[in-house]
């Protein structure tokens, strides 16, 4: 008889959240122990209301240190350079407390790790163990997919994302700012680290050659290039961290489950970060799988293939749709043709004037 019900391969945010969710069901969990101490993590995640609800239920969200999470009350999306087109979203218009939360990736990891240490049903292990169910949460570079005979259908964008922490001389006031321009997408996410009320998380997606050139610049050169890109809308910016970069792609596993195994998070799907939905998709995977296992028939094992197909069917459609949306937006704003630029900028202005459509779009983001 197996000592463990579930072996979770991968120790990131999705893996830890899954371990905590399944431990609440009374299952015995083996969780991979991180093999390499993490270095400086400059990432900041945008979390939806549903993701925050899950983390709060796991006793993780309220355990975050002060200033680790910042509410987004408004969002402004601008079009091509020289255009006055803009799309604005407001929590007040939507009738919610906030549109999203921006959270420090390292702080969230630490809060999850602390919760794991206090959960008696979770054992951290240094090597794979036998269990009724293997949950693969290793990320996009997972080796378990190949072992399971799963094809990784990947489309590289020829783009690189650059992330960093910034401090502005003007307060952010909880406003997220994003620029959709050919050929780049730039986001400034309001943040309270390192300086409360004045910090941003930067996510800048660019063609690989341009990103490489920016990463090679010294700090003053990079800061000037960034300031030229965003203008004065957020005030004068300065770097407050190292810069990180990674290649961007749209990818999905050919199947997500089989007898005794299942894929979650970036091991199952990867989308462009322009909508900030990557981690939200992974946490939604956690919520659905935990619910499917909780509601299973008493005679079914947690590794039952038909049971795991229920999870896969429920998650396939929304994940596919988010991939198509992010890919479509990227392709639309990558076109440099004058007529197309004019059309998409007018589209931003039109949507901004249609309150019901704006409410619908915001609602989809809040519910993801």
What tags apply to this protein structure?
FAD/NAD-bd_sf; FAD/NAD(P)-binding domain; alpha/beta; 11 helices; 6-stranded mixed sheet; 9-stranded mixed sheet; 2-octaprenyl-3-methyl-6-methoxy-1,4-benzoquinol hydroxylase; 368 residues; 38% helix
Textual characterization of the structure:
By secondary structure, this protein is of the alpha/beta class. It has a single domain, classed as FAD/NAD(P)-binding domain. Helix content is 38%, strand content 28%. The chain is built from 11 helices and 18 strands. The strands form 3 sheets. Strands 5, 6, 10, 11, 12, 13, 14, 15 and 18 form a 9-stranded mixed β-sheet that branches. Strands 8-2-1-9-17-16 form a 6-stranded mixed β-sheet, with helices on one face. The protein has a 3-stranded antiparallel β-sheet with strand order 3-7-4. Helix 1 packs parallel to helix 4, helix 1 packs parallel to helix 8 and helix 8 packs antiparallel against helix 9. The longest helix has 30 residues. The radius of gyration is 21 Å and the shape is globular. It starts with a strand and ends with a helix. About 6% of the residues have low confidence. One of its GO terms (molecular function) is FAD binding.
